[in-house]
Design a protein that fits this description.
The complex is a heterotetramer. Chain A has helices spanning 29-60, 62-70, 74-99, 103-133, 141-145, 148-183, 193-217, and strands spanning 10-13, 19-22. By secondary structure, chain A is mostly helical. In chain A, helix 3 (74-99) packs antiparallel against helix 4 (103-133) and helix 6 packs antiparallel against helix 7 (193-217). Chain B has a single domain (22-47, 73-540), classed as Up-down Bundle (Cytochrome C Oxidase, Chain A), CATH 1.20.210. Chain B starts with 21 loop residues before the first helix and ends in a 15-residue tail after the last strand. Chain C is built from 9 helices and 16 strands. Chain C has helices at residues 12-43, 61-90, 197-204, 222-229, 271-279, 303-313, 320-334, 376-384, 408-419, and strands spanning 97-104, 107-111, 117-118, 121-124, 128-135, 142-146, 151-155, 161-166, 171-177, 190-195, 255-260, 263-268, 284-286, 360-365, 368-373, 390-391. In chain C, the strands form 4 sheets. Chain C has a 5-stranded mixed β-sheet with strand order 3-2-1-5-8, with no helix packed on it. In chain C, helix 1 packs antiparallel against helix 2, helix 4 crosses helix 6 (303-313) and helix 7 (320-334) crosses helix 9 (408-419). The chains are: A mainly alpha, B mainly alpha, C alpha+beta, D mainly alpha. At the B-C interface, helix 3, helix 8, helix 10, helix 11 and helix 12 of B face helix 1, helix 2, strand 7 and strand 9 of C.
């Protein structure tokens, strides 16, 4: 992202002789942020499409969906909601600390985020393994014997929470990469766009859960 | 011409710094011009493959009954043809080749915003292409679902649907990255002074295109993933035996794939908007109208997907809504055509090959567009849906619109890209051959479709024979024309005369630098406070020399 | 042969009008736009119009407004005709005869209100026919397309979509499948036969399979006809399932426990017993069933007829040979088997029925190849679980199971028939 | 080292994060309590739950993702995406509603 060679900005002058800066694509903070926001839009379209499918079947199979929602573990789901909330806070604080020049504290907050994300995944793992243990997973004989709406509810449940979980795993990977960049001095208190974008990504992951949680766990 | 500074063919920078090895210099180059050429060669290789499959299909259909391939092979052939043409050729076509090459040049930028991601797009594109090709040779062969991957057939069939779906997904991802790159480039890297309404119209069309890529592609991406999950885990979302609704997949597929056809045609319109003023020797008529109509087509084009599904069982209410919206898209499209034709008024038209291609395309695309209106009308479409009429309409719009304008652009920017000139006489003859072959190939299909010949048929009832025979003969003429054209371009590239920086006397920034361009594109970046197409008495108002001078090396 | 492009349904006129209007307007627009373009190309070519004659015109607001608004009017006209034709097509009259149309891989089945099932559709002229179109649940998408009727509707597995038509002309018209559905998509053909009303009625109320059948339907055993006519089969099944009373299947010659005046007794169901059971049903009630359900048939069925019935129970059959072949053929036709399996040895999607029985074939079980003899057991498995053993050279997943669709008896008669092929 | 003036955009403050965090905690508790306090039918539940979810989403996007202090371009882009989704959902809802209820046109 940074290019040491272009330290002097390129200036062009209009007819009146006013200077205008040529933006250097190698070091364009606003551009990097805009690019990442566009990426976030694609993610919103992906999850939005899944919610579209969810809504489509919720309309057709409301009783089945309500009954199936009853079977999910709200305590674990609720705990996970709070964990993500906390992790979004710690991610944000790490950015604040970095920009105030407190590199070590910033790293500490990233570590806290990573730990919280891992706890989220562990809880998710227990939730899933419980459901798989009682025979509820796509294509299982138990599930196939149930009503169509129930099959669709769990099909969507595993797809959407699975996709969300995948995003958390990727997020953890990105955070380790960010830590490495901080250690090697590539991210500094003035050149922080990578960490800022990581924080944006993490907020997106949180944002998706804000909708996933009530729609799956609380519609009964 | 590049006696001052070497061209981008001679030097480059790669993602790893500098390499001695020529091949590595190309495939790891982060220079937007080299990436454009990488796309170009791979794309035309796949174009050749897809044209060949089409020729095989047409040959099989020459007479009724089974001649030399069996129905399953035929089904795989049209799927292969569709997947390659749509996902590997037309969708990336103009944006990834001409867009990549020209966008920074027309904006006055030194590269796109994210050169490394640009290279990543190409690698993803290659990965997707590789997956598609690999699936030809393993197991039960290439998918036989048609490029639409409708469930439940795509869930039931034994062929390598997962491979094709993964390929399409990865190609979609590559296309998203290109789109993001372009939008950021257009927002951030315009030359100082160049406001949005001072950009060349090709850039405007790429801007609209990129938004479609960003906002529509993810929807089809996730739908394809759900079909993959359906096949591997049986999640049931599109499987009727588990309560799923196949029509939902049709919705989600077309939410992307209809905007995708605007994604294909918009950059092509952009090319026309460049060529028409250059060869009319005057400013384009209605610059603002053309620019805004691109955005309108992109916006409204997003909301018309349901017209692919009039017979699928969607509700009557939504059929009428989609029909009305579809007609509405025709208005901005019409405005563009009227503007182009108005540009010809009181002009001094120079019939060079790019202009020939553009005028030819106006004819074929107007046919494609007007037949689009015919099938947009609900009651009429119910009769014509899934017949050869739709096949012909689609090819008139996409082949006769997008690909022809792509060829026009290839001829127009050929001297810029290669620094050489092709033979004008042969290029014009190649155009006439292709134009005749094209109409002979596709026009009979309108009639066959009107008479009720359904599409994707391996065999047909005997009374359609005459139309199939005509089309097959047309396909041979068309193929010969293609060979002629590519050979002319190849001769031009190898043996053509040097073209000079501005052979057409055009006005946009890419013509103010040497051909082929130098690695950093511009020596000094101009302050652009004027409109892109300013002519006076048929001559450009400004002649600039923006080449990189020896004494002022950049980077 | 595709029977012409002439529309023969009541709404074909509206659809054709819409087609002509939109096509006509399109041609008009085309000629106008391309005409003006060619005029400009000719007049303002650089041979005739030199560069110093160029006029830089960049805007003309009134003109631009005109060419934005004028097309909208034309488009509104096109939309209107699309709407009227759709309305005519989709307003299903309340008075209609409903025919169920089921698509499955490469075969259409039409089921009439009285339970008749045919491959082609037979309809009376001038009557409203409502089609309830669907596809088998584990099948794929199809589209029911009758060009001459201007009718097209996708058949979606698990969903029923309606269409209708009123034929205005007698004749035969093609039915095609317009939604890609796999290997034999282009052979998923059938016909609509539009008949005079009386000819239709005559067929509809007869036993004939199609109105063009010369042969009378294979006569039933007179005993069975009697059972049917007297409503016996409403309570006694023919296939072994227990309804209100015991099934007729294997009723003769078995030992059953019956309740006589409250005590259980074992008896043999011989002629005498069966006769008593018909004439005095409450005297000896088979264990597990309750008395008082059946009334005596004394004076309703003559002794002679009772003998016929008992003969039927004994398994007395007439015209077994002819019967079996026709029956097997009917099963094959009505279930679309012949769409994929030929009778003459040619290979379509699946192996031909010719010589199928008794040969030795290689089959794929999972990933391994195994040789099996194609005997009764194998063929039965192949019908009920087609994907477990797929004959080498053919692909699985093409045929869906016929479990629950064909009865054991049907399958037996099919296998019997294959033996002779 | 960095001459690009955009990099030092808005000032950033930890207290904003804490305030929004406690607000979100409050909203989440509300989300969890809703089924315990009042038992609503599906429609009302969805309205309440999605209402809370959208409020949370607003705060996350506005403060955690700094849209409040970003350039108007970002705001415009977000409005566009949200509007686009509402139109898409609207069109799908129209189709679903008319397809699965007996209210479609031409009464069939």
């Amino acid at each position: 992202m940074s290019n040491a060679s272009s330290t002097e900005p390129e200036i062009v002058y209009d007819k009146q002789g006013n200077p205008h800066e040529v933006i250097d694509f190698n070091n364009d903070y606003e551009g990097a942020k805009l690019g990442f926001w566009l990426f976030i839009f694609t993610e919103i379209m992906i999850f939005g499409a899944m919610f579209l499918v969810f809504g489509f079947y919720l309309f057709q199979f409301s009783p089945d969906f309500i009954a199936a929602s009853e079977g999910l573990n709200r305590v674990l789901g609720g705990t996970n909601t709070f964990i993500l909330l906390l992790s979004a806070l710690s991610m944000g604080l790490s950015l604040v600390k970095l920009r105030n020049g407190k590199i070590d504290e910033s790293k500490k907050f990233i570590w806290i985020t990573i730990i919280l994300a891992t706890i989220f995944l562990t809880i998710k793992y227990f939730e899933w393994s419980h459901e798989i243990h009682i025979g509820i997973y796509p294509g299982s004989p138990t599930l196939d014997a149930l009503s169509d709406g129930t099959k669709l509810f769990f099909g969507l449940y595993f797809t959407m929470t699975g996709l969300h979980g995948l995003h958390i795993i990727i997020g953890i990977g990105v955070m380790f990469w960010v830590l490495a960049l901080i250690n090697s001095g590539k991210i500094t208190s003035t050149n922080f766009v990578v960490l800022e974008n990581t924080a944006l990504y993490w907020d997106l992951v949180h944002l998706v859960w804000v909708f996933v949680f009530p729609l799956f766990y609380l519609i009964y | 011409m590049s006696n001052v500074h070497k061209s981008f063919y001679d030097e480059t920078h790669t993602v790893f710094g500098h390499h001695k090895n020529k091949i590595l210099q190309w495939i790891f180059s982060i220079d937007h011009k080299r990436i454009a050429l990488l796309y170009l060669f791979v794309m035309f290789a796949f174009f050749a493959v897809a044209v060949s499959t089409a020729l095989v299909m047409r040959l099989e259909l020459f007479s009724p009954g089974q001649d030399f391939i069996d129905p399953d092979t035929y089904n795989q052939a049209f799927t292969l043809h569709g997947v390659i043409m749509i996902f590997l050729f037309i969708i990336p076509g103009i944006p990834a080749v001409l867009g990549n090459f020209l966008l920074p040049l027309q904006l006055g930028a030194r590269d796109v915003s994210f050169p490394k991601i640009n290279l990543l797009s190409w690698w993803l594109y290659m990965l997707g292409a590789l997956l598609a090709v690999t699936s030809l040779f393993i197991g039960d062969g290439f998918a036989d679902t048609g490029w639409t991957f409708y469930a439940p057939y795509s869930i039931k069939t034994d062929t390598n649907v997962i491979w094709a779906l993964s390929a399409a997904f990865i190609l979609g991802f590559a296309s998203i990255l290109t789109g993001i790159n372009f939008v950021v480039t257009i927002h951030r890297l315009r030359a100082p002074g160049m406001g949005f309404f001072k950009m060349p119209l090709f850039v405007w069309s790429l801007y609209a295109t990129s938004w479609i890529q960003i906002l529509a592609t993810p929807v089809v991406g996730i739908s394809l993933i759900m079909v993959i999950l359906e096949r591997t885990f049986g999640i049931g979302i599109f499987d009727p035996t588990k309560g799923g609704d196949p029509v939902l997949l049709e919705h989600m597929f077309w939410i992307y794939s209809h905007p995708a056809v605007y994604l294909m045609i918009l950059p092509a319109f952009g090319i026309a908007s460049e060529i028409v003023p250059t060869f009319c020797r005057k400013p384009i008529f209605g610059y603002h109208a053309i620019a805004i109509s691109s955005a309108m087509i992109a916006g409204v084009g997003y909301l018309v997907w349901g017209h692919h599904m009039y017979t699928s069982g969607e509700s009557e209410m939504i059929k009428l809504i989609f029909s009305a919206l579809t007609f509405f898209v025709a208005v901005p499209t019409g405005v563009k055509f009227f503007d182009w034709i108005a540009t010809m008024y009181k002009a001094s038209i120079d019939f060079k090959t790019p202009m020939l291609w553009t005028v030819g395309t106006f004819i074929t695309f107007i046919i494609g567009g007007l037949t689009g209106l015919i099938v947009a009308s609900v009651g009429v479409d119910i009769y014509l849906h899934d017949t050869y009429f739709v096949v012909a309409h689609f090819h008139y719009a996409i082949l006769g619109g997008v690909v022809f304008l792509m060829f026009a652009g290839m001829h127009y920017w050929f001297p810029k890209i290669t620094g050489k000139m092709y033979n004008e006489k042969h290029a014009a003859r190649a155009f006439y051959t292709i134009f005749i072959g094209f109409n002979l190939l596709w026009f009979p299909m309108f009639i066959a479709g009107m008479l009720g010949m359904p599409r994707r048929y391996f065999d047909y009832l005997p009374e359609f024979e005459i139309w199939h025979k005509l089309a097959t003969i047309g396909s041979w003429v068309f193929a010969l024309g293609l060979i002629y054209m590519f050979y002319t371009l190849y001769r031009g590239w190898r043996y053509g005369e040097l073209a000079g920086p501005n052979p057409w006397n055009a006005t946009t920034l890419e013509w103010q630098i040497p051909s082929p361009p130098q690695l950093p594109n511009f020596g000094e970046i101009p302050y652009v406070d004027y409109m892109p197409y300013e002519y006076k008495n048929g001559e450009p108002v400004r002649h600039l020399d923006l080449s990189v001078k020896e004494d002022k090396p950049h980077e | 042969m595709l029977e012409g492009i002439k529309g023969v349904s009541s709404f074909a006129g509206e659809v054709d009008l819409a087609i002509w209007v939109v096509v006509g307007l399109s041609i008009l627009i085309f000629l106008l736009v391309v005409g003006v373009m060619f005029y400009f190309l000719y007049k303002y070519s650089n041979k005739r119009h030199s560069r110093d004659q160029i006029k830089n015109i960049e805007h003309n607001l009134p003109l631009e407004i005109t060419w934005t608004v004028a097309p909208m009017i034309l488009l509104a006209v096109m939309f209107y005709y699309g709407y009227t034709s759709l309305k005519a097509m989709r307003t299903i009259p309340a008075q209609n005869m409903e025919v169920k149309v089921t698509g499955q891989m490469w075969f259409w089945t039409h089921e009439y209100p009285n339970g008749k099932k045919t491959k082609d559709l037979y309809v009376p002229i001038g009557e409203n026919i409502k089609l309830a179109i669907t596809a088998k649940k584990n099948d794929v998408l199809h589209s029911y397309y009758v060009p001459a009727l201007r009718l097209k509707q996708d058949a979606v597995p698990g969903k029923i979509y309606n269409a209708w038509f009123k034929a205005t002309q007698t004749g035969a018209f093609d039915i095609l499948c317009a939604e890609y559905c796999g290997t034999r998509h282009s052979y998923m053909l059938a016909k609509v036969y539009v008949l005079e009303k009386d000819k239709f009625d005559e067929w509809y109320n007869s036993d004939k399979k199609t109105p063009f059948d010369k042969k009378e339907k294979i006569p039933l055993h007179p005993g069975l006809t009697l059972l049917n006519d007297n409503g016996c089969t409403g309570c006694h099944s023919l296939d072994g399932s227990a309804l209100v009373g015991p099934s007729y299947k294997d009723i003769f010659g078995r030992k059953v426990k019956v309740a006589v005046d409250g005590s259980l007794k074992e008896i043999l169901t011989d002629e005498n017993y069966l006769k008593r059971a018909i004439l005095n049903p409450d005297a000896e009630i088979v264990d597990g069933y309750s008395g008082g359900m059946m009334s005596s048939y004394k004076d309703i069925i003559s002794d002679e007829d009772i003998d016929k019935i008992i003969d039927y129970f004994k398994g007395g059959k007439i015209e077994v040979k002819v019967d079996k072949k026709a029956k097997a053929m009917a099963i094959l036709d009505n279930n679309g088997c012949t769409g994929c399996h030929s009778l003459d040895g040619s290979v379509l999607v699946g192996p031909s029925y010719k010589g199928m029985f008794g040969r030795t074939v290689k089959v794929k079980i999972g990933d391994s190849l195994k040789e099996v003899v194609s005997n009764e057991d194998y063929l039965k498995r192949a019908i009920l679980e087609p994907d477990t053993e797929v004959v080498d050279g053919f692909s699985g997943g093409m045929m869906s199971s016929y479990k629950g669709i064909l009865s054991d008896e049907d399958i037996d008669s099919l296998i019997e028939y294959f033996k002779g092929l | 080292m960095n001459t690009n003036s955009n990099q030092e955009s808005h000032p950033i403050n930890a207290s904003v994060y804490y305030n929004v965090f406690f607000l979100l905690i409050g909203l989440t508790v509300l989300t969890l309590l809703q089924p315990v306090i009042i038992n609503l039918d599906l429609g009302s539940t969805l309205i309440v739950q999605l209402g809370i979810a959208f409020t949370k989403a607003f705060f996350i996007v506005a403060y955690y993702m700094h849209i409040k202090s970003s350039s108007p371009l970002f705001k415009k882009l977000i409005y566009t995406t949200v509007v686009l989704w509402f139109v898409l959902y609207g069109l799908m809802a129209i189709d679903t509603y008319y397809r699965y209820t007996p209210n479609d046109l031409f009464n069939n």
